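Thread: "does anyone have the structure for this chain?"

Original post by V.I.:
We have the sequence but no experimental structure in hand. Need at least a predicted one for the grant figures.
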Amino acid sequence: MSDEDTSYNHKNAPIAFQPKLGFFELRATVSQNRKMVLGIIGAIIFFGMWEIAHYMMDETQQKFLPSVEQVLSSLWVLFVEKAYIYDVLKSCYRVFVSFFVAAAIAIPIAVLMGCFANIKSMVNPTVSAARYLPAASFIPLLLVWFGPTDLQKMSLLFLGVVFFLIALILDATESVETSLVEASLTMGASRTRVVLGVVLPAAAPGIIDAMRAMIAVSWTYLVIAEIVAAQDGIGAVMMRAGRFLNVDIIMAGILTIGILGVLTDLLFRLSAYLMFPWDRAR
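Reply from O.Q.:
Generated one for you, tokens below.
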């Protein structure tokens, strides 16, 4: 083929280009300001659909789906007139104490399992099987053991997360590069030093991610934990409201748990940001 033909073909060949998909661009990088704006738009859409659904219902049925302003009004009354802050703090106490006890047990077990194959072979079958046991099925047993006490409720919250937490932290531990462990052993580090000084710090961001994911599950179990013989807490307020068909108070309780869950997630994100500056890009 002559140079002229080659030049002609190059000039007339179609030019490949990446189409600009805008909002639906694959794997796009979104700035923090854009994330905030899109998050606000998403919230407006959600509450707007809720409001529309309320007014589309028959007037006799609207009490079963109160409007946004009715729920917010009920939430204000709960805090101002019903000492709802005490119930919120009580629920926070139950969630956080039970979760951090679960984390204090899950982290060492999972890290040892991730470092020592024999420990994993011994413990993992039991932990894997326990994940399939519904935590709510333990309520009668926990009532027999502890009665209708805070310990019974926190034990249920503990059982709801501890086995899944072990599994997630095990994955984070096993994701640590083997070359780091081998290099440490080659330089004469003891097994204890490798586990505490190499594996644990390397797995720490993944461990925080696992804790952040599982504390959300603790919040979802809260109402189940406070449903039996509870005198206080968000779940108890919701159950009392259910007896009298006060749907606005029930939804105010749901909204409270959602807000607390978001604040908890932000707390974990901030903690990870401050503790692991090298991991901020991820």
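V.I.: this helps a lot. The chain has a mean pLDDT of 86.
O.Q.: and The chain has eleven helices and no strands.
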